[in-house]
């Protein structure tokens, strides 16, 4: 699975130099951070609505959109999915309550 994320991250990185008229992602990059954040907000809302409606297929579809646009954000910020995967690995096997308490120390 992380191989797919790496492939997607490479394509998203390449889109930084693509023509905004030819690439959705390049167009989003050209509009800047606020446009990317707005899109993530939209996709998060659509994901919540799909879950609330109990529509499994729509939930999967919207979650894919949300993850995709989050990867666009990471790439825009010069970050890659491996950093998020590393953080999830760091947290793995740790109580969520314990991890949250450590953040406030």
From TrEMBL:
Recorded GO molecular functions are: ATP binding; phosphoribosyl-ATP diphosphatase activity
**By what name is this protein known?**
Phosphoribosyl-ATP pyrophosphatase
Q: Where in the cell is it found?
A: Cytoplasm
What's the domain of life for this entry?
Bacteria
The family assignment reads: Belongs to the PRA-PH family.
Q: Which UniProt keywords apply?
A: Amino-acid biosynthesis, ATP-binding, Cytoplasm, Histidine biosynthesis, Hydrolase, Nucleotide-binding
Q: What class of enzyme is it?
A: hydrolase
Q: For this entry, list what GO says about its biological process.
A: L-histidine biosynthetic process
């Amino acid at each position: 699975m992380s191989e797919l994320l790496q492939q997607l991250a490479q394509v998203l990185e390449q889109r930084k130099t693509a023509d905004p008229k030819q690439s959705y992602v390049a167009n989003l990059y050209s509009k800047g951070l606020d446009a990317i954040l707005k899109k993530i907000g939209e996709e998060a809302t659509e994901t919540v609505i799909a879950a609330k409606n109990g529509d499994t297929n729509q939930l999967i579809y919207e979650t894919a959109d949300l993850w995709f646009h989050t990867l666009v954000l990471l790439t825009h910020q010069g970050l890659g999915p491996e950093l998020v995967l590393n953080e999830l690995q760091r947290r793995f096997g740790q109580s969520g309550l314990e991890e949250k308490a450590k953040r406030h120390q």
